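Suppose a colleague, Dr. K., hands you the sequence of a protein chain of 249 amino acids and asks what its three-dimensional shape might be. Before reaching for any lab equipment, you can write down a predicted structure in token form. Begin with the sequence itself:
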Amino acid sequence: MKPVLSVRGLDKRFGAVVAADALSIDIAPSQKVSLIGANGAGKTTFVNMVTGYLKPDSGSIELDGMDIGRRSPRHVARLGISRSFQIPQLFIELTAAENLAVAVSGARAQALSFHSPAEAQGRRDKALELLARFGLTDVADRPILELAGGVRKLVDIAMALVRRPKLLLLDEPTSGVSAEEKFATMDRVIHAIAPDAATIVFVEHDMEIVGRYADRVVAFYQGRILADGNPHDVLKDPEVRRYVTGGAQ
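The predicted structure, expressed as tokens, is then:
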């Protein structure tokens, strides 16, 4: 099967710090891949390079066979890669629905305008459709600043789905979510993404989330891939237990 994402020999350095050291990885369509590793291991640097926020020093990044390694984040998004952020990137004084409407307008390459009622209603309808997928219809007209951290996370991920991406990268989708709510939150995310059949790559520190939702785990250490395989094998790998999970099961 042709990979949706293919990375070869990716290098990135910040002075003496090696953030990516000859990374090579293929990700197949419809996979749910979790990236794990200690802080500074290279996970977020990898995500930032794939999405165009950082340019690699060397190596190649291909989406469906197209070289995207030097393209801007906006161009990468148009080609089919979307992302969410560890800290949600939202307009906190706007409502949840208004945030989604802004994203819809951007995805359609149109200036946001409220002079056309038909266009405004179309954006709102799309916004409400996405919020409904996440079970957030009841907060559609509430300002972001009034919403809990976990709900903000879901709105941020909903914004990433506006373009119906081929590849969706999620940066710690359950961080800031209580232990009691983390599985329910991730269930909402997986359920909401399912209609678009997007390939998912998610950075995660919670090994219970990794073990339950990933069908492949890639462990990073000092800018390199330490292990890559099914969750059971990777999480029991002695090197992963030593350098990543600290013995966590």
